[in-house]
Structures are given as C-alpha cells and as structure tokens.
Amino acid sequence: MRRKRPAPPSPLPQRQGVDPVRVRLPRADQWATVGAYLVARLSGAGPGVVEKMLDSGLVVGADGRPVPAHAPYVPGLCLWFHRELPPEVPVPFPLEVVHRDAHVVVADKPHFLATTPRGSHVTETALARLRRELGIPGLGAAHRLDRLTAGLVLFTVRPEERGAYQTLFGERRVRKEYEAVAPYDPSLALPRTVRSRILKERGVPAAREVEGEPNAETVVELVERRGDLGRYRLTPRTGQTHQLRVHMNALGVPILGDPLYPVVTGPVPDGDFRRPLQLLARRLEFTDPVTGVEHRLCSGRTLRAWESYESWAGR
C-alpha cells in the first residue's frame, strides 16, 4: 500500500488563529490552467471572487509566491490562500483552561462555541481562541464537541503528536462522562444501557435510529431528581454524532434546550444565548500516550436548568 505523502508546510501564517486553506490539484486533465480549476472548485465563492484573488496575488504556491490565473495546471500542485473572515457574533462566555503541559491543553468549552472552524463559525471557535490566547499556532483538536455542548475538550500542542491522542479516542481508550438535565419519568427504569444503530446523513440536521447492528452504546443513570426534572449521568461507549441526544430522546426524556430532538425547530441563531442545550462533557480520563501520566479531569461548569429551573422554564 502506498503511503500518503505528508502535506508540505504552509507558506502563509495563520490569521486570527485560523489556518490558510490548502488546495492540492487532483490528477485530472480537464483544466488547462490553475485559474480554470479554482473557479470551478470554488464556485460557491460568488461571481468574480476567485478571479479577483488570483489577480491580487492572494493565492500562493509552496514558495510563498503568487500563482497567476494563467499558470499551467500541474496535478499534485499545492496552493494556499486565506478565506474571507466575515464578522462573527462573539460568544460572550469564558473558555477556561483546566490543564496545560508541554503536550496537551484541556479546555472547558462554553455552550455555543464551536470546537474547530467550520461553516460560518471560524474565528469564534475554541481552537482559534486558544491559539490566539495561548500563543500556540500548532495547537490542534484531538476530538470535538458539538457547538451547543459545553465541557472538556482535548487539544494537542505538537502537531506530530496529534495522531497519538486521536488514536486514544478512536480506540475508545478515553473515559468520557457527560451530565444532562432532562424531564424526570418515574416509569423509566434506570440505570440502563441503550444500544442502537444511529444514522447521520450529510445535510440532514438530526440523526436517526435505524434497523441494523448497533453502532452506538450509552449508559444512562439518574443522579438526582428535582421536581419534574432529572440530572443524568451519561457514559458513552461509542462516539456517534448526536449519540447522547438521540438516546435520551429515544428514552422519552429529551435533553432540555435541544433544537433538534424530538422536533427540529431550526438552527439556533447566532447571538441567541438564552436556552443552552443542557448537556455538559463533565469528565475526561485517559493515560497520556506520550508521557504515561494518568489524567482525571473535571469541568467546573454547571447546567443552568438545574441551578434555576423556574427562570429557565419561564423563558
């Protein structure tokens, strides 16, 4: 099997903690020039945008020199440019660092802050913020939390070590424990292990359970009851998209503040911080694959609905 060639280093620096975009020209012969390919590849940028970038020298090669639109198409050639960074609504909650050493940073992410740049959330992400605030341009995410979920996220300091930490998550050698606030159902027998097959389709906001071999498993426990609410401990043994939200909904106790389950109510508008999803990545436990140190880390955040249910319910 041929080993994948490592990507060459970027000739452009980060901008506001965000990496430049890298494009590798594929093995194909239907384009005569670099400009023709980029216009076709980046068609969503809008009329004339790509041409203007090329004319302004904003697209560069590995040597950092601008690549003109008329440059001949060369399969495998790498190009870099910075994407437009439109203004984003700041997420007005602190991003706390709960652990930092020479190899990893573990941050306590607030609700509404995306983990890594994606879609319309680029500079207002945990990764970009930490790169700027800590001065670590090589910082990378070993895993991700949904934008609406708060809690612990592991980042790696050295790019060459990132794979070792990602493998921890891929091989399920990280113990993750979540906390959720959801309705209390006296008829629901807990603790229990929920197993199902979850399907998440591209372009469809909500995941769904389907027939077939289970690919998702969650241990659900009731920690405490307060009136018609329960505080639950959720321990996932797999990592499917929206797994905890899907499983709690399947039990008939959907997590408070969820805009997708049981009913899709649409995306939460940027700037609307009134009803955060009541889901928190409370604990991370793992053996560091580089140092051998045992890490047991805990979020210091609380879930608003549990602390003040009356004000939450009245919103």
What is CATH's topology name of the largest domain? Pseudouridine synthase
Domain count? 2
Q: Rg to the nearest angstrom?
A: 22 Å
Helical residue percent?
Answer: 10-25%
Distance between the termini: 58 Å
Report the sheet-strand fraction. 25-35%
The overall pLDDT, averaged over residues, is: 93
Order of helices and strands: EHHEEEHEEHEEEEEHEEHH
* Low-pLDDT stretches: none
How many helices does DSSP assign? Answer: 7
The largest sheet is: 11 strands, mixed
Q: Structural class of the helix and strand makeup?
A: alpha+beta
Q: In CATH's first tier, which class of the largest domain applies? A: Alpha Beta
CATH architecture classification name of the largest domain: 2-Layer Sandwich
Q: What overall geometry do the principal axes of the alpha carbons give?
A: elongated
The tally of beta strands, per DSSP, is 13
CATH superfamily of the largest domain: Pseudouridine synthase
